[in-house]
């Protein structure tokens, strides 16, 4: 019996890819590995929240209000008898989805426009840069609150306001990085070989400047998460009964002395996310996870 050569070639390619990823993982620092594991674990738990949550997050149980952590309720219950662990899991699921969308949806737009502005210069750079300056001159929190005041409390205003400013930040970072590499030999070599400006930007420019934006995106992601939690804390974010980390903290604040777990547990979740994202961002900043291409 003879095996099809294409099967062995495909298997060899797959083994090479797995070996490459394993080699990349071994090269990472301990802090980067810890950050990656924390972030991956949180994402997996968030995705599987309906499966791993021990109780319905919105199920009321007035017989067992403000119960301390136990085997039945590992993070205790709130003033309405709802399981805090289940509410934190569903809140993590919602928060990660929202902040990932508002953080990374505008990133490619900003990087492309910033790269075009930095590469071409002249009138194109002036137009894009002035537009960026106008957007960034608007106080971010003022814009978010103004949009929410017009649209109303909820996620719609958050989805609208945050990307409007975020893309401009990524564009400014990408423009600055492109200005630093556009005269380098590997960029000029593409033009000498007859490549179009578009190909030089996307094939040689953006792969060499994307790391800076990715590093900043980890900071932006955590800032957006805290902004969402803060808005929900003051009643302008996620609306009840949908669980959200900031809203859970607000609900538990009146009982902080007698039932510390209601507000403390979601706070610890936020801290854990921050530690994981910070460690992962440090690895990106050191060039361990994404390297420059020339």
UniProtKB/TrEMBL annotation:
Protein name according to UniProt: Putative D,D-dipeptide transport system permease protein DdpC
Keyword S-adenosyl-L-methionine: no
Membrane topology field: Multi-pass membrane protein
UniProt keyword annotations, A-Z: Cell membrane, Membrane, Transmembrane, Transmembrane helix, Transport
Localization annotation: Cell membrane
Recorded family membership: Belongs to the binding-protein-dependent transport system permease family.
Transmembrane residue ranges: 34-53, 96-119, 131-151, 157-174, 221-239, 259-280
InterPro entries: BP-dependent_transpt_permease, MetI-like, MetI-like_sf, OppC_N
Classification via SUPFAM superfamilies: MetI-like
Cell membrane in keyword set: yes
GO biological process: transmembrane transport
